């Protein structure tokens, strides 16, 4: 008698997501604000939703939070389908969307106390301390006694952020959180986002400021004309943007001639040139230049910036409305 054993069959590993949309579409009359958005927000990530004004960022966020019903599509928030699972999911979500709205004749502290009273996860005995912790965290402690109507735009943003952080959240959604803030306030927002990330919260940041997204986010989703044209880890998207070498040399013309003779693509750039590494390598480029008698002062890998990546993606989407830029980025349609 023989006994055979086999390894247990395991399902392929899937990464956990804090939020997911499938085929999301929103129409306002004859206007399509969001069209076929498939978005995944990995658990524990800081995702920057990037796009120009009118790209559909805020509409997508409002649907994700159950504030607007989609015309078509599915939404999953913290493992719960919307709208049916909103009551279970939303208490664990803090959000600042399209600027906060508070009672103008109440102070900042009084407004937060009212907000805290409606928090299902906050015990009434803890309201006072939660409010004081929140205003301190966003740098508003010295102005919490003042009436909201006298707040500047930046102070209103801070108060809205404080309301979103009254209790620990699994997901924090911030729509243009640095709007109206001075450089010091912007740095504080970055610090808060970093603290949330370190504590294990998932953060979704909507912005049209590329520098802010690049400074704070681990993942990015690029929206253009209501459609996601690319999404993924920020470092991977930047690396996929193209591999090149920046060469500093006083002999630019000689270097260009030598590289073109070797069928290596290059173009002048600042005090040197940018050399594309498609079909070649950095050592081959340096060898070609040295053999041609070109003086190479410095050679470094070219890092694609978010601004350059964003411009290329949106331009590609404009040029090829039939093929998404994410297909172009990944090397072909799937």
Helix content range:
25-40%
CATH superfamily of the largest domain: P-loop containing nucleotide triphosphate hydrolases
Distance between the termini: 49 Å
CATH topology assignment of the largest domain: Rossmann fold
Instruction: Quickly give the structural class.
Output: alpha/beta
Low-confidence stretches: 1-13, 322-334
What is the CATH class name of the largest domain?
Alpha Beta
Rg over C-alpha atoms, rounded to the nearest angstrom: 25 Å
The gross shape turns out to be elongated
SSE topology string: EEEHEEHEHHHEHEHEEHEHEEHEHH
Q: What's the CATH architecture of the largest domain?
A: 3-Layer(aba) Sandwich
Report the mean per-residue pLDDT as an integer. 84
What would your notes on this structure say?
With 334 residues, the protein is an alpha/beta fold. It has two domains: 18-232, Rossmann fold (3-Layer(aba) Sandwich); 243-302, Alpha-Beta Plaits. The protein has helices at residues 57-64, 86-89, 108-117, 127-137, 153-164, 183-198, 210-216, 234-240, 252-261, 282-291, 306-319, 325-330; strands spanning 17-28, 31-42, 46-50, 72-77, 80-81, 93-96, 171-175, 202-207, 219-224, 227-233, 244-248, 266-269, 272-276, 298-301. It starts with 16 loop residues before the first strand and ends with a helix.
């Amino acid at each position: 008698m023989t006994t055979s054993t086999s390894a247990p069959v395991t399902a392929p590993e899937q990464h956990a997501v804090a939020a997911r949309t499938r085929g999301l579409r929103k129409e306002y009359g004859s206007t399509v604000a969001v069209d076929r958005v498939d978005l995944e927000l990995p658990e524990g990530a800081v995702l920057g939703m990037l796009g120009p004004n009118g790209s559909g960022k805020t509409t997508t966020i409002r649907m994700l939070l159950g504030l607007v019903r989609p015309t078509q599509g599915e939404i999953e928030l913290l493992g719960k389908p919307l709208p049916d699972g909103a009551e279970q999911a939303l208490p664990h979500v803090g959000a600042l969307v399209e600027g906060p709205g508070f009672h103008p004749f109440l102070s900042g502290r009084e407004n937060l106390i009212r907000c805290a009273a409606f928090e299902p996860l906050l015990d009434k005995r803890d309201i006072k301390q939660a409010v004081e912790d929140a205003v301190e965290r966003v740098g508003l402690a010295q102005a919490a006694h003042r009436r909201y109507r006298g707040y500047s735009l930046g102070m209103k943003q801070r108060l809205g952020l404080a309301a979103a952080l009254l209790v620990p959240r699994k997901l924090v959604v911030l729509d243009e959180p640095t709007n109206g803030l001075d450089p010091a306030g912007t740095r504080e927002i970055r610090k808060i986002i970093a603290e949330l990330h370190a504590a294990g919260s998932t953060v979704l940041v909507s912005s049209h400021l590329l520098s802010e997204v690049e400074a704070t986010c681990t993942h990015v989703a690029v929206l253009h004309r209501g459609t996601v044209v690319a999404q993924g880890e920020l470092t991977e998207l930047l690396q996929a943007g193209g591999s090149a070498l920046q060469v500093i040399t006083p002999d630019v013309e000689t270097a260009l001639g030598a590289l073109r003779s070797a069928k290596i693509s290059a173009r002048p750039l600042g005090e040197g040139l940018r050399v594309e590494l498609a079909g070649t390598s950095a050592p081959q480029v340096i060898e070609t230049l040295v053999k041609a008698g070109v003086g190479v002062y410095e050679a470094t890998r070219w890092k694609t910036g978010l601004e350059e990546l964003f411009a290329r993606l949106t331009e590609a989407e404009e040029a090829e409305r039939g093929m998404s830029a994410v297909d172009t980025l990944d090397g072909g349609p799937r």
